[in-house]
Amino acid sequence: MKKRIRIREANPAAYQAMLALDSYLAQTNLSQTLRDLIKIRSSQLNHCAFCIDKHTKEARAHGETERRIYNLSTWHETPFFSEEERAVLALTEAVTFIASRGVPDEVYDAVAAHFSDSQIADLILAISSINTWNRFGIGTQLSPPL
Predict the structure, then answer these.
(1) 88 close to 111: Cβ distance less than 8 angstroms
(2) Strand (E) or helix (H) holding 130
(3) Where in the chain are the domains?
């Protein structure tokens, strides 16, 4: 692959702004598990190898099971995720693919059954944040370390 820019070096202020958003999200009352699931699932959908590698390692360090990580791409078909997690995963998919169908009412309503308005805002910010990081990674051809 041809060498591309590293956003951290090319535009440190933008990179710091993204880190500030991540710092905010870490202080919300969204569980670490939900934040990890959002990061992994969005990275899978966007095919960001660097982010998948990074966030699956982090999730394991936070106590997530390999079985759930391995089955995250088939969450619709497995019994390993709670109703709350399923609602968040559906929202993650809808927001990640927002251009194709928006966020359907049934997806939003499922999330609203489990979360406050403030938490829904934080969920959408978390999904948007990882989607931006994925675009940084893919746009600059960032690859996982060996």
Answers:
(1) yes
(2) helix 117-139
(3) 31-139
